[in-house]
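A further point concerns the way the authors explain their paired sequence and structure data. Nothing conveys this as quickly as seeing an actual entry. An entry of this sort, consisting of the sequence and the corresponding backbone structure tokens, reads as follows:
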Amino acid sequence: MFGGYFYHERIRKSVAVFGRLFNNLYVVRKDASGGVLNQMKVPLSYAPKNKFLDRIRENPSLIDDTRVAVKLPRMSFEITDISYDLTRQLTKVSNFNTVGVTRETRSKFFSPVPYSLGFQLNIFAKSQDDALQIVEQILPTFNPQYTISIFPFKDIFPTFVEDVPIVITSVSFSDDFEGQLETRRTIIYTLTFEMKVQFYGNIENKNIIRKSQANVFESKAGLGGDSDIYLERVTITPNPLTAIGMPDSDFGFTEEIKLGVDSA
């Protein structure tokens, strides 16, 4: 019903692109005089927020439990929703094409379907300063959006570039500071984003049109004025016939006109 098999890995690649935006953040700890004590890269992984909280709270006590706890700070992100974006809808019959599998064919795909992917980035820290360092390295980049350029079909359409805006929609935080002093503290900053992506259909491989014909009639010129008279047929072919429609091609066209039997 839906045609041939295709898989462009749009969601998978979108997750990878989103994660790479935040995989190079650092936290620097200093002493009272401003000297650097240590610097650490903040780990990032794809995981639901609740799973991380469960793992952190497995070892809530800093005295009695001897198991190794999850080291903070760290970050996690996940997809939260997928929704259709009506504001970016394009004409459905528009298409893009380029050289096909062979020089005698063309590869073509129609206008993509716009969707928005919702992402949630969670920042876990045990001190407010660690959390704020991470947040302040992220917020200035989004004003309120950050646009990246990708090649969705680099092997087939190497010159086709797509701009993907990523918009930050909200920032919130929670702090479970209440409790006994020996209980582990967890500060959580939650940043929500919206990535505007395009989903593409099957890429078709079609033969190049090498011959065009047009029949010319004189409207209502027949007997009684209720029929058309066939005048001529115009046939256009490339010259030479083996010409290939490349961007740097240099060839002409041959026009052949064959008069109809009703023309003088």
User: Anything to note?
Assistant: Residues 210-259 form one domain.
